[in-house]
Design goal:
2 domains; 7 strands; Beta-carbonic Anhydrase, Chain A; alpha/beta; binds zinc ion; two-stranded antiparallel ribbon; 5-stranded mixed β-sheet; 35% helix
Length: 221
């Protein structure tokens, strides 16, 4: 597990809110989202005519981290590409389901796996999140000693049945995930899969050469 310092800082900056406070914050967010959408819809224009298949024929699998905006860091406009996101950007069964549909039915021909520095998935293990969830379903907090649960409970042991796909090393996880996709029986060998790390301090994509090598497409006849 990596150092918790940056993640701890971001948590510490958030005020602890009681249940009524949560409601008021959520209402404000709802208002903000709907207002932003009214503005977006007012200038939607020709985007209503976009075709369903991605126009630039590629897909990105990446983390849900709020600091990553694939449209911006990869230069995407509406209709350009598929972006599949989950915690860690892991090549889970469900991510592969989406990638297979992306190629087989919707025409993408190149795929990126993009993990990133300072990923929250490095801050815990299966054992830690299972233990936290077994204590309560409320939000956990983190300090210099790690994660702690402070909810009243009850929790649930259902977390024992989930593989949380945590990360020990983000370069290694890119390699592992590109390899898993490359060797999946439902993935065409003709699709190149590129492995990259996004640096949250610079916004720059850094190739993981071992991953890209593993992800290379088979030579076509
Ligand atoms: Zn992440």
């Amino acid at each position: 597990m990596k150092s918790l310092a940056p993640f701890q800082f971001s948590i510490a900056c958030k005020p602890f809110v009681k249940s009524r406070g949560v409601f008021s914050i959520m209402s404000r967010i709802l208002d903000e989202v709907l207002a932003a959408n009214r503005t977006y819809g007012a200038t939607f224009g020709a985007k209503g005519q976009l075709a369903m298949p991605p126009g630039r024929r590629f897909a990105i699998l990446t983390c849900m981290d709020a600091r990553l905006d694939p449209a911006k860091f990869a230069g995407l406009a509406e209709g350009d590409a598929h972006v599949i996101r989950n915690a860690g950007g892991r090549a889970s069964d469900d991510a592969i389901r989406s990638l297979v549909i992306s190629y087989k039915l919707l025409g993408t021909r190149e795929w990126f796996v993009i993990h990133h520095t300072d990923c929250g998935m490095e801050t815990f293990t299966d054992e830690i999140i299972r233990s936290l969830l077994s204590q309560s379903l409320e939000q956990a907090v983190i300090d210099s000693e790690g994660w702690h649960d402070r909810g009243a409970g009850p929790g649930s042991d259902a977390g024992e049945f989930i593989d949380w796909l945590t990360i020990r090393d983000v370069r290694a996880s890119v390699v592992t995930d590109v390899r898993r996709i490359r060797t999946h029986p439902l993935v065409s060998p003709t699709i190149p899969i590129y492995g990259y790390l996004y640096d949250v301090k610079t916004g720059v994509l850094v190739e993981v050469p071992e991953a890209t090598e593993i992800g290379a497409a088979a030579a076509t006849a």
